[in-house]
Amino acid sequence: MWSLKHNYNKLSARITRAQDLDSRLNRQKSARRVLRSENETGIARRFWLRAVDPAVKLVFMLALSGVLLLCGYVGLARSSWFDLREIKITGARHLSRLDILSAGGLGSHTGLLNMKPALVEAGIRENLPWINEVKIRRSLPDSIVIHVVEEIPYAVGLIDEQWFYLNHDLKPFAPYDYRHGYDLPVISGLSRAELLAEDQELEDLLIQARELLDKAADLDLELTGKVSQLEINKNKGMIMAFAKIPAAVVLGSNFNGRRFNHFQQIIRDLADRDELSGLLLMDLSQEKIVIVRLEQDSV
Fold it and tell me: Are residues 146 and 159 in the same domain?
């Protein structure tokens, strides 16, 4: 009995040790699998770090640089170093320095880095009707040059019983002021509603009137004098008055250079015959007929 029991105990011990050995082997295999998995994971991580890390660093550096530049710009923009201290204005004749600066919203509070020249130019053009063109040039750190081109009055317009300066397109741009001392022809017959409306018939008449006034500048002023008035009427066309011609000259609505040459010839002929002072009417509104009426014809 004892030997069997003793042998059984020895066998049990061997079985137990064998089971323990299997457990250790299984644990070692598991550990190797875990180690292999960790190694593979580490290799993959190192691969991605090598591939992604430079791009991440670049993005980070760019973002940091942008933030630093923005902070630096904001700091400089708020610094008094770039406050506007010197303003030079060229080309202004009718407008005062204060008018231009006020229209552009400029002053000692203006910072050159924050100033937007395009907005300042737009403000000057919109608020000052005399301005045709304006250009601003910045000179850091604290000065600007404003160059303006003013409208040139081409005529004086009587529009709805109010007087305005007209530009070369015969469009009003500023109220008339006799103190400016311009000697300009008077354009009458226009209304504000007609000028604002898109009226092609009126636009055609305005084009003819501009051409006529340009040609009239080449007349013999000793005979005719300057143009004193030009009436523009959509029904009657154009009627012109000269300083030295006693009668109005009816031009009609389809006046052209050829008929203007006829007008010059008639004026010279009348002057040669010493009959110009007796002119009562000249009508060039018809295509092939010129009507001339003199004082002696009415007697």
Answer: no
Residue given tokens 């406050």 in the structure block: 83
Cα separation values, 100 from 107, 144, 152, 179, 265, Å: 11, 13, 17, 21, 49
Same domain, 164 and 293: yes
Pair 125, 109 in one domain: yes
The pair of structure tokens assigned to 240 is 């012109």
Structure tokens at 260: 């203007």
Per-residue pLDDT of the chain (299 residues; tens, 9 = 90+): 445 445 545 445 454 554 555 565 555 555 555 445 555 555 555 555 555 556 556 655 666 555 555 554 445 445 566 678 888 999 998 889 999 999 998 877 777 878 888 999 999 999 999 999 999 998 877 888 999 999 999 999 999 999 999 999 899 999 998 888 888 999 999 888 888 887 888 888 899 899 888 888 888 878 888 899 999 988 888 999 999 888 889 988 887 778 888 888 888 899 898 888 888 889 988 877 888 888 876 54
Residue span of the structural domain in which 1 resides: 1-78
State whether 61 and 93 are in the same domain. no
Are 190 and 250 found together in one domain?
yes
User: Are 147 and 135 within 8 A, CB to CB?
Assistant: yes
Helix crossing, 200-216 with 257-272: angle to 10°? 40
Q: Are residues 184 and 128 in the same domain?
A: no
Percent helix, strand and coil across the chain, each to the nearest 5: 50, 25, 25
CATH number of residue 104's parent domain? 3.10.20.310
One domain for residues 236 and 287? yes
Tally the domains of the chain.
3
The tokens for 74 are 């904001």
What pTM did the predictor assign? 0.65
